[in-house]
Design brief:
With about 675 residues, the chain is an alpha/beta fold. The protein is about 30% helix and about 20% strand.
């Protein structure tokens, strides 16, 4: 039950004029008169792309084999008449009640053996052969019916794969896991070696003896856990490929995607691995209202999405006009925040801005989730914001197709994230994203945009490369990082990097094994810090989470040392010249001031500067078109006006840029060419 690998197909961007604008449209929730009103409101807002039929299986096929497409026919015809394109869904994200009742074996099973019932959504296992049979059949029926419809611009395959339930422990899942392992390792002895099963008498005589890692007396085999994470990501991808194969067969000229959930909080799927099967990357992103720096997390997630997209333009498939409904306390967005959020995504590479959803539901689990048309209708600030955003995006049409500029790379690997947070490590306080987000925040505040690059990706175009908590790394990736330094980049490696290989086997000979030679250091023992504890370096930097007994070797410079017992005088920050570049090592997590001071030193050495001279509190990013035109985005998240040094036309107003971005406002400057 494995679908063939696919590759990228046609582009969606030729089908939609300008920056795409719209959201999830769920007309099945509303009567005909509301649907007709929707068309007029969409025209007023400037909507040109909608996702349709995501959760409509229960109405399209109310009983097995009996279809009702009349309402969807009318909806697509009306949208086409209004000049609105459609990302048509396969309708498979939520199986209908009759299917779950007839085939309860499709339902997910947890590690504790609990079967998750219908009544919510995403209640199926991607490894269920029965579910795949029904889902591919439904996909084929929809594809055949609408393959020639003029509104069809994009296929929206399923929805938010990996959301809610990310791992599966049913009998069919276990069998699929075993088949996946056999394909990966070939023989059981190779698996035994990879998993280190000589420890704790975990040796297997055949693949038939293996089960998914579940509830157990104590810690589980880390190799098994890591492979199970890989398998679950693959299982969803294999399911996606099976639906995609149907769409490729029926509509080879129509691009397809599914909406990722790239953020600082989601790690179920290896999106870099998934990217090759997407015709365009699409992402859903939601702010955490309680986060006082939520705009910085948005920038992190948008930059990571662009990294997954390989720098190509991508679709913001979902975000919210105001409050969501699923956080503990759901505050609305602040004045101007929806515009700032939307254009921040565009600034960081999105060529489409879409929302969940078009019209706010009057019933159901998400009735208090904001939408483009709120419960209060047209006479609301939310609706006025929606119309204003549509006009802003229309004015940004020249930006479409341009790419974000960056000379800084942050190395990112989902497998390293999974591996770094497994059981039985030196400290539960080590979190994969902590150092990475700290550096990204410092870069953001300095007006420097960073690209996220997979460890096997091309680092040759970057002047500064940050390698943060890359606990697990292949020989190939370690060599690529070393090559970047040798050829002129400033490379910084942080603590708990290069410790193990891709099998979670420790690299012997001293830490950090994969980077020991590059960095010119050797660590004998880790000295993790207890929660709330800190260490002060001899340059005044305050660190937390981690320290270690580092020995500098050869010509490696010691730039800062620990001052606490028993590491007094032990290197905490080092630098080694290598080839045309340098390799730095950081052995603790500095506080914000320490990170900022270190970032300044790294940028200075790498000769990387801000996107523009600007006052504090403004978010800066630049996109550049293939013909050399550049567009500077200046987003003022503060409550005071900010000066920005840039000359050119301010696209949102159509006037020459005054040099000032008002409080809470956005400026997008089509910069004058250099003299």
């Amino acid at each position: 039950m494995s679908s063939p690998e696919t590759s990228r197909g046609p582009s969606v961007w030729n089908s939609v004029p300008g920056i795409a604008y719209g959201g999830d449209y769920n007309p099945e929730q509303w009567p005909e008169d509301i649907r007709l009103e929707d068309i007029e409101l969409m025209k007023e807002a400037g909507v040109n792309l909608l996702s349709v039929a995501i959760f409509s299986w229960g109405l399209l096929e109310p009983s097995e084999g009996n279809y009702d497409f009349g309402w969807l026919d009318d909806v697509l015809d009306n949208l086409h008449g209004a000049g609105i394109k459609v990302a048509l869904a396969t309708a498979t994200a939520s199986p209908p009640a009759w299917l779950a009742r007839k085939h309860p074996e499709i339902l997910p099973v947890t590690a504790e053996g609990v079967r998750l019932e219908r009544g919510s959504r995403r209640h199926y296992s991607p490894s269920s052969s029965v579910y795949r049979r029904y889902a591919t059949a439904m996909t084929r029926v929809i594809a055949e019916r609408y393959k020639d419809h003029p509104a069809l611009a994009l296929w929206h395959v399923d929805n938010e794969l990996g959301c809610h339930v990310g791992e599966f422990h049913g009998e069919e899942d276990a069998a699929a896991f075993r088949r996946w392992l056999e394909r990966r390792y070939g023989t059981i002895e190779v698996l035994n070696d990879a998993w280190g099963t000589a420890f704790w008498s975990q040796h297997y005589a055949s693949f038939d003896e293996i089960i998914p890692p579940g509830a157990a007396p104590t810690t589980l085999n880390p190799g098994q856990q890591l492979d199970f994470a890989r398998f679950n990501s693959w299982a969803f991808m294999d399911y996606y490929r099976e639906l995609l194969a149907v769409l490729r067969e029926v509509t080879p000229g129509v691009p397809a995607t599914t909406n990722f959930m790239v953020s600082s909080a989601t790690k179920t799927l290896d999106y870099f691995d998934w990217a090759k099967d997407m015709d365009v990357i699409a992402n859903d992103h939601y702010l955490v209202a309680a986060d006082p720096e939520r705009e910085i997390e948005l920038a992190f997630s948008a930059d990571l999405t662009r990294g997954v997209a390989g720098g190509d333009p991508w679709i913001l498939m979902e975000h919210s006009t105001s409050a969501v409904n699923w956080q503990p306390y759901n505050q609305p967005k602040m004045p101007g925040e929806m515009l700032r959020n939307s254009l921040a995504h565009v600034a960081r590479g999105a060529d489409a801005v879409m929302f969940f959803q078009w019209r706010q539901s009057k019933a159901g689990s998400e009735k208090f989730h904001s939408a483009m048309v709120p419960h209060g209708g047209r006479d609301t600030q939310v609706w006025r914001n929606v119309v204003d955003l549509g006009e802003a995006l229309r004015r940004l049409e020249p930006v479409k197709g341009s790419r974000v500029e960056s000379r800084v790379a942050i190395v990112f690997d989902y497998e390293a994230w999974w591996a770094s947070e497994l059981d039985s490590h030196p400290s539960q306080g080590v979190k994969y994203l902590d150092t990475m987000r700290a550096f990204h925040r410092s870069l953001y505040l300095r007006g420097v945009t960073a690209d996220f690059v997979h460890p096997t990706g091309d680092l040759s175009g970057y002047d500064l490369v940050l390698v943060c908590t890359l606990y697990a790394v292949t020989d190939e990736a370690a060599a690529s990082i070393a090559s970047a330094a040798h050829h002129g980049a400033t490379v910084l490696v942080s603590y708990f990097s290069g410790i193990v290989d891709e099998r979670d086997h420790v690299r012997l000979g001293g830490y950090p094994g994969a980077f020991r030679e590059l960095l010119g250091i050797r660590t004998e023992e880790f000295h993790p810090l207890f929660p709330g504890a800190s260490t002060t370096l001899n340059d005044g930097t305050v660190g937390s989470v981690w320290s270690e007994h580092v020995c500098a070797t050869g010509s490696t410079e010691v730039l800062a040392t620990f001052t606490h017992y028993p590491l007094d005088g032990v290197p905490a920050l080092t630098r080694r010249a290598t080839g045309a570049g340098s390799a730095w090592y950081l052995a603790t997590l500095p506080d914000a001031d320490g990170i900022d001071a270190l970032t300044a030193r790294l940028l200075d050495e790498a000769k990387v500067t801000s996107a523009a001279e600007a006052g504090a509190g403004v978010e800066l990013s630049r996109r550049r078109a293939a013909d050399g035109r550049s567009f500077l985005f200046a987003i003022n998240h503060g409550r005071e006006d900010v000066t920005v040094k840039s000359d050119g036309e301010e696209l949102l107003s159509g006037e020459r840029f005054s040099g000032v971005v008002p409080a809470g406002a956005v400026a997008v400057i089509a910069e004058d060419p250099p003299n």
